[in-house]
Amino acid sequence: MTESSAVEIEIATRRLTAALDALESAVERRRDADRDENELAARIQALGADRSRLADELDGALVKARKLERVNREISDRLDSAIVTIRSVLDTGEDG
After folding, report:
1. Which of 34, 47, 85, 96 is the most exposed, having the fewest neighbouring CB atoms within 10 Å of its CB?
2. pLDDT at 82 over 70
3. Taking the model in full, what pTM does it have?
């Protein structure tokens, strides 16, 4: 083997080593990016589940609020009726 062949082999070896290092770095970056994508997908899925749960809770709360409003109106009507009856009795008692 000649000295120029040895130099060429050394240069080729260095280029190959540099290319392998670059490939290894690229693979590591890709692995990190995939991991980040997987974590993001998991977070998005968790947020979707939370959103569904919160929407269900909100629907339940709205039903309960409507029911309470209806009961409140009924009680208000009954109180108004009772007040009218009491005033009528008091007015009748004053006349007698």
Report:
1. 96
2. yes
3. 0.54
As a dihedral over the C-alpha atoms of residue 21, residue 24, residue 25, residue 28, rounded to 10 degrees, the angle is -160
* Residue 96 confidence (pLDDT): 59
End-to-end CA distance of the chain: 138
> Which residue is associated with the tokens 């899925």?
45
pLDDT tens string 31-55: 999 999 999 999 999 999 999 999 9
Say how many CA atoms lie within 13 Å of 68 toward its Cβ.
Answer: 6
CA–CA distance, 68 with 56 (Å, rounded to integer): 18
The residue assigned the tokens 């130099």 is 7
Our CA dihedral for 88, 92, 95, 96, rounded to 10 degrees, sits at -170
- Please give the Cα distance from 43 to 51 (Å, whole number): 12
| Phi, psi for residue 60 in degrees, rounded to 5 | -65, -40
